[in-house]
Specification:
By secondary structure, the chain is of the alpha+beta class. It has one domain. A hairpin with a 3-residue loop joins β1 and β2. This is Lipoprotein signal peptidase. Keywords: Lipoprotein. It comes from Clostridium carboxidivorans P7.
């Protein structure tokens, strides 16, 4: 049962990431509740480890 929950969680994670990439990547974001909550897409250019390695 635990394995099923983990697999479903991973699938849900992937689906929401694909949705965000499709819907949010070419917009300035989606306002859900004005001045309180919005959805925005940011793509990480570097990993944190490379940043701290300098």
């Amino acid at each position: 049962m635990e394995l099923l929950i983990i697999i479903l969680g991973l699938i849900l994670d992937r689906v929401t990431k694909l949705w965000a990439l499709k819907e949010l990547s070419n917009t300035s974001g989606i306002v859900v509740i004005k001045d309180f909550f919005g959805l925005f897409y940011f793509r990480k250019q570097r990993s944190c480890l490379w940043y701290f390695a300098k």
